[in-house]
Design a protein that fits this description.
Elements lengths: L4 H39 L25 E2 L4 E2 L3 E4 L5 E3 L4 E9 L3 E8 L3 E6 L1 E4 L7 E2 L4 E5 L11 E8 L2 E3 L2 H7 L10 H4 L11
Antiparallel strand pairs: 1-2, 3-11, 4-10, 5-6, 5-9, 6-7, 7-11, 8-10, 11-12
């Protein structure tokens, strides 16, 4: 007796369905660690202190230039300038995801890192990039680039413009850098290192 046509057609469809579900399961299994890491980063609190993002520079050598007038008062400085020799390594102060590597008009060569508290850390005027690319995970101390004078920093001493951006806009990085050097926090790992954004567009340097 010939096999029932409906039963014969049902077997291949069951195999295809099982294969599809198996593929989905494999993708979920392989991606689970990344999803957990991303969730941990998004749910971690914003750091209360940060290490210096330029190698070899002490916090006492950095001035609080936040809010200083720029372009004859047309805008204000939304970050701090950290001066160092050209080519000095720029280090990520947080664990996070690289969300931007490229150029913009004011910042020249720039890198953006999404860190704990959904804060975007903005590094501008780089002489060269450090080999990072978008979607890379970086740890505190990872080299993002090197101090330079690109963008509107041409003609000035080499420096890093460092900014931090939240969903509400820019915040002053200086108190966080100064807090890292205070007696209460000296020697402690930054918050981002202990607990593995929306962003407003960095607009000033």
């Amino acid at each position: 007796m010939a096999a029932h046509p409906r039963r014969r057609n049902r077997v291949p469809s069951v195999v295809v369905t099982l294969a599809f579900l198996g593929a989905i399961g494999w993708v979920v299994y392989e991606m689970a660690p990344q999803w957990r890491r991303y969730w941990a980063l998004m749910s971690a609190p914003a750091p209360t202190h940060l290490p210096m993002p330029v190698q070899g520079v002490a916090p006492r050598a950095v001035a609080n230039t936040w809010g200083a007038a720029r372009d004859a008062g047309a805008r204000t400085h939304q970050g701090v300038d950290i001066f160092a020799r050209r080519g000095t390594p720029i280090l990520s102060p947080v664990e996070g995801i690289v969300i931007g590597v490229g150029q913009d008009r004011l910042g020249g060569n720039v890198v953006r890192v999404l860190g704990p508290g959904r804060q975007v850390h903005y590094f501008a005027h780089l002489d060269a990039f450090g080999g990072v690319k978008p979607h890379d995970w970086v740890s505190p101390g990872a080299i993002l680039g090197y101090v330079g004078t690109t963008g509107n920093a041409r003609g000035t001493p080499p420096h890093l413009h460092y900014g931090i951006y939240t969903a509400s806009g820019a915040i002053n990085p200086y108190p966080l850098l100064a807090a890292e050097a205070s007696p209460r926090t000296r020697g402690r790992a930054p918050e981002s290192a202990r607990a593995p954004g929306t962003r407003s567009r960095p607009a000033t340097t």
